[in-house]
Amino acid sequence: MKNYLFWITVFLYLVSGGWVKADNWTLSVGGGAIVHETPWKDMPVQYAVLPYIDAEYGRWHFGMQSGIFQYRLSDEQWPVALSAGLDYRDEGYDSMFNFNDDLSDDPVFDGYHAPDGEVAARLDMNWQHLSATVSQDVSDKSKGTSASLIYMYPVYQGNRGVQVKLGGGFRWLSDKYADYLYGINGDNINPAQGRFAYQADAATNYQASVQLIYPFAAQWAVNAQLTHERLDDSIKQSPLVDVTSTTQFMLFVTYRKF
């Protein structure tokens, strides 16, 4: 999280200092809050107040929704939008995206060595209300793959741009990636702490989401989303996990500059 804030500061400094011409960018800036449950045993609910930035320059895209960066492969006239880039994945215990300073008090994590974050190549596809993402480790950490397919349908669209979307989909983790996050191997095996040897299989988590987009001025909007994710048995059976599902709520206020 500190790295994310650092790069936001650098980007805003370049814009304000004239090193990057803001007129050539499409920018969305703002801030908001995230509240997120994790699957880990006895882990406090995570929460944070964060800045928000999403920037587009020609075919390049940066910001919270784009990982490290994305480059648009498809022409604007294409019905399907394709982009590729790099992302930073860190979904393990003691992730940099665990917003609270306090971690779990469960003894299963005493002496546990959490997996490192990793750089991943990422391919995104968007078509109408459907979006898909495939991510592959390229930093020689998990050597694993993750993928998601999400469909969000606008069940209500108001005259002023108000939208309510309902939908869902799934996230798939390859056996290597699932085991990297939830498996117990090597020096992490310690039966005295409840960390018995465990090898996770490939996992599919199913999601349901509701999203509200509420423009309250010409370039200002509130974006809120609630997502519930049901965990695969391969994850639930890990000695590190004690829940069957997780929930995340996000609320951001943004200003979009064209």
From TrEMBL:
Pfam families noted in UniProt: MipA
Protein name listed in UniProt: MipA/OmpV family protein
InterPro entries in the cross-refs: MipA
PANTHER family: MLTA-INTERACTING PROTEIN-RELATED (PTHR38776:SF1)
Family note: Belongs to the MipA/OmpV family.
Keyword NADP part of the UniProt annotation: no
Subcellular location: Cell outer membrane
Keywords: Cell outer membrane, Membrane, Signal
Species, as recorded: Bowmanella denitrificans
